[in-house]
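3.2 Worked example (two chains)
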Amino acid sequence: MAQAFFGGVHPHDMKAATNEKAIEQLAPPATVVIPMSMHFGAPCTPIVKVGDQVKVGQKIGEFKGLGAPIHASVSGTVKAIEPRPFSMGGDMVSVVIENDFQNTVSEEVKAPADPDALTVEEMVEIVKNAGIVGMGGATFPTHVKISGGIGKVKDVLINGAECEPYITGDHRAMLERPEEIIGGATYLAKMFGVDKVIIGVEDNKQNGIDAMNKVIAEKKAPVVVEPLRCRYPQGGEKQLIQAITGRQVPPGGLPADVGCAVFNINTTICIFKAITTGMPVVNKVVTVSGSGIVDPKNIECPIGTPVSLLLDACGGVKDGTYKLIAGGPMMGMAQYTADIPVAKGTGAILAFCEKEEQTVEHPQCIRCGKCVAACPVHLEPLFMYQYAEKGMVDELNEAHIMDCMECGACAYACPARMHLTHMFKTGKQLVKNKMAADRAAAEAKKEA
């Protein structure tokens, strides 16, 4: 039975513009720009050079330590390896491929003879080589989550909440690709050795729930769909765990600490594709929506497709559009250019018109406490804001700022329009800088 998590808000879901529009395939782009950082961890090192011919699914970026490999999403010629604009800010070394429009698949892409006969170790290796990460935006390497959780995890959860406004890619996948979702969930059950996998879906997607339940019944799959009441941020993994299992992940802890592992709907689909066909992550479904978009759509495109082409495919942007966001309106990042590429974690591109601008130049906190009531991890945003503004690092640590998930619920609830989430990003960086400085000082003291 679904539980409730603490805090949260109820923003208008704004999904009507795209939730009944099938996923469209984008016309192949002439050029793709594939950033070497699309995962949690250090960027990949390019293993191709300018002038090389590459094929779809060919590995072009190798990782060291924590990470996931990166593959070519089109076949063609490597035209450049250079820093290019990046959705997370600044520039990132990227492999630029000129498309030959042959869509030639690499010899590296091999389907297993019998996917159901694979051992757990073989499946984890396939997931690793396919470059699968948390496709909902967290981008944590999936093979690390699986291998680290085997033997510890008792509940495997699939995150189908899709609680951010506007985004409907997961909902459309439930309707159009339920076999792939249930197939991927079945492989996860085998890898973790659990008797069932639970898919949590907010109850505003009843037709998606019905579509998956139909496939579960047909295949007698070890999967259960759990309807959840709509509340943001239901899709946060700690909130999803509490809503489904009733367990609370401790501050600073991980889902594995309470016997859980959480995977995104699109991640689950990628697992199914990799195990059954050998194809790594080369495409992404992106919701293009917002009041500034002429014709909002759900679009599937190759990784590395310039966002400007997605906007063109939706009829362009309206006059008066003032903001472009990569991601959802609550947690996404504003962009200064449409020349950024689609990455593995890009779930949405949103454009907004001037009438929606509701910021305040010099906001003043009125001590109403609504931010405290909205925070799903029991923090006190009004104090954290003051500490971050004044650079009080020790106080930020005592206020547990590193537990902030930057969900934006506090900023949404704030009647004074305080720039809370932005300030917490700044505060976290202050804490990280202090930790780095302390480490450097301690090492220098040892050497002295």
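3.2.1 Second chain
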Amino acid sequence: CEPRRAIHDCQTLFRFALYLSILHLSANRFDLGDDMQDHTQSLIDRAAALVEAARRAGADAADAVVLRSRSKSVSVRLGKVEGTDASESDDFSLRVFVGRKVASVSANVTGDVDSLAERAVAMAKVSPEDAFNTLAREDLLARDCPDLDLYDATEVSAERMTEDALAMEEAARAVPGVTNSSGAGVAAGSGGLVLVTSHGFSGSYRRSRFSRSVSVIAGEGTGMERDYDFSSKLYFADLRDPAEIGREAGERTARRVNPRKMATQTVTAVFDPRVARGMLGHLAGAINGASVARKTSFLKDRMGQPVANAAITVIDEPARMRGQASRPFDGEGVQGATLTMVGEGVLNHWFLSTSIANELGLETNGRGARAGTAVSASSTNLSIEPGDRTSEELIKEIGTGFYVTEVFGQGVNMVTGEYSRGASGFWIEDGEIAFPVSEVTIASNLKDMFLRMIPANDLDRDFGTAAPTLVIEGMTLAGQ
């Protein structure tokens, strides 16, 4: 849900949370109600019929996938409902291989399977050869897949969603200093995948997602500041209380009022976990096999070498119980094992799908992600493992520095590692948070930043990309 500018607009935030539930596609079979089981089986049967039709039409190999999504949401602002949305879809795609040629087509659930298959095969025959795009090797396919407890069948009424959204906004607006609201939103939905291949794989999954979010404004005129808070869970009962979310959003916003500008200097930056997750996202992009194959990663030649401080270990765990990005098998039917992507600072793995692995002369590690007709590589439950000191201890130790709570702008060059982004947060004096800071830029190079990085022990694993507070010395702060 790679992703990395702080999201302020409330509607964007809760729609983003729903999108993540669909983006991180995984596969699993769940004990659903009879109607849902019947529907899932009908989709598997139709996918199998597409694959068989492709073989009859002359394909040497094929796979069919159904991307499923269901969502509903309510948004409010200033005590009034602004919008309600609901959607659902089952999107089919068929990929066929004729020799080394490949083509993909999309269709709706009612399309004729034979004509679709014939069109796909005809397209493949006139396509250029692709030496790398193949089905996953049969011996790598998942056989026994654990139930990772990813689906909650709770139905949340529109009335309940509206009540929760109003309660969040009311709690946020009640915080002293809050002057306006950007709105609050509640969303519920699910995503899923059905996959059938011509070499014997058949599987399906369903994953739920519930979210609550609110964004408010403090201050007046040109001195206005905005912040937010949210909760996103697989299970409805695990969501934080609406009043708690609203109160935290209001307090975060009020603390930002009357920020100061700082003089240009070299500082030790302390990245709040919300921002630290974005730092891990940059690393994930740099160790994605697609970036390596295209030579667009600043780490493309660093396999087996130190790329981070020895205090940094990065784990990718696809089969974590109730993990936000868990998947018992990937978008190609491969069951991925837990990998130490970076161990004590040393780079050990790339994220690989079958085609990317073929291009690099390697073997897929079960990180293929399906998005319609395309297969790419992605992380699952990715985390920077915690250190042995609290964030308070690290802040006290550095004495003076910049606590970063927000970054914005697109100043990250993944080819060179150059990093320069607008930032705001709080100044640290005498080892304590002192006053808010805004309108500054922080800059360095990601190569140096990871080598200087020190993690705190406050890791919250309840994110698909999770990181603790991170301390990085030697960053340039550009201000007055």
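3.3 Remarks
Confidence is low (pLDDT under 50) at residues 1-34.
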